[in-house]
Amino acid sequence: MYGFLIAVGILLLLSIIWMVYRIQTLVSVVKGSDKKIATGSNKVNAFMFVLFLVLGGFIMFWYSIKEFDNYNLPVASEHGVVTDQLFWVTMAVTGIVFIITHILLFWFPYKYQYKEDRKASFYPDNNKLEVIWTTVPAVVLALLVIGGWKAWSDITAPAPEKSHVVEIMGYQFAWEVRYPGLDNVLGEHDYRLISASNVSGVDFTDKNSFDDFTSPVVVIPKGEPVLFKIRARDVLHSVFAPHMRLKMDAVPGMPTRFWFTATKTTEEMRTELNDPEFVYEIACTEICGRGHFSMKKEIRVVEPEEYRKWLSDQKPYIVNNPSLVADLPLDLKELADITISEYK
């Protein structure tokens, strides 16, 4: 560690010495005491700007085209089409401006490199130009922001009435999935009830939780709205399903939500990609600790008929572990026992 600090100190010292030398040189130029203002390195540096522009531009375009399929994943949700349209419109606008400004940025040092017989033009101001380059970006950015705001408002608006509800809870370092059962109503939860046998902290004094169940895989139907209710148990996480163009933070103490409609089943996507092992997945895109890399959960998109059959075959928490309701008040215990008997 000390060796590193010493090395940094030496580099800083050398940098200071170099800067002092350069300042002295510039002062001598201003005083007229240095007759040779332009050196051979001036032309070399000017040429290097152009070379960097050409090589950097070539690498950027080559890599973007080569890796296009890796960063432009197929869309598998309705709102994902809108999201992609917004992305590519924004990319076109900002990309054109980026390319033009950087061509000028690297060309100008070459075009206007110092020459002893050239004098700089004095151009103090231009009010019309100031208005143009202020107004045009403001209008363009406003249109882009309004388009994004509209799409975001649609996504975060209340889900359609008959949406399938799925709770996604993040914790270090996994995702816990909870379904509301056939009634499509999740039971309440309380962090104080979390235990080894009750990972989600489900409150079984709420009878709506009697048919709640968990699943190792997030199963959702194609063509029908799905509402993800998202929360975190410990630190900040982020639910990211790239093919669905879905991303929403999971925040402790502040539930969030995201609703969407899947348009391609897992099998259809496997056929499209010619990849029999393809799976949709949820990943965590918020650095949440050492085990962050392991936070993955499969999403399986199936046809509605298959989803309903799968749903009817699932068994609630209290069926797999009756001890969860063993200490309930008598009236609730009787209802829980009835629920358990219906699944046996």
UniProtKB/TrEMBL annotation:
* Signal peptide feature range: none
Instruction: Cite the entry's keywords alphabetically.
Output: Copper, Electron transport, Membrane, Metal-binding, Respiratory chain, Translocase, Transmembrane, Transmembrane helix, Transport
Q: Which Pfam families match?
A: COX2, COX2_TM
What PROSITE patterns does the record point to? COX2_CUA, COX2_TM
Q: What is its EC number?
A: 7.1.1.9
Bound cofactor: record note: Binds a copper A center.
Q: Where is the Cytochrome oxidase subunit II copper A binding domain?
A: 161-313
Reactions performed catalytically = 4 Fe(II)-[cytochrome c] + O2 + 8 H(+)(in) = 4 Fe(III)-[cytochrome c] + 2 H2O + 4 H(+)(out)
Instruction: List the SUPFAM superfamilies.
Output: Cupredoxins, Cytochrome c oxidase subunit II-like, transmembrane region
Q: Where is the Cytochrome oxidase subunit II transmembrane region profile domain?
A: 59-159
Q: Which family does it belong to?
A: Belongs to the cytochrome c oxidase subunit 2 family.
**Role played:** Subunits I and II form the functional core of the enzyme complex. Electrons originating in cytochrome c are transferred via heme a and Cu(A) to the binuclear center formed by heme a3 and Cu(B).
> What is the name listed in the Swiss-Prot or TrEMBL entry for this protein?
Cytochrome c oxidase subunit 2
Species of provenance: Shivajiella indica
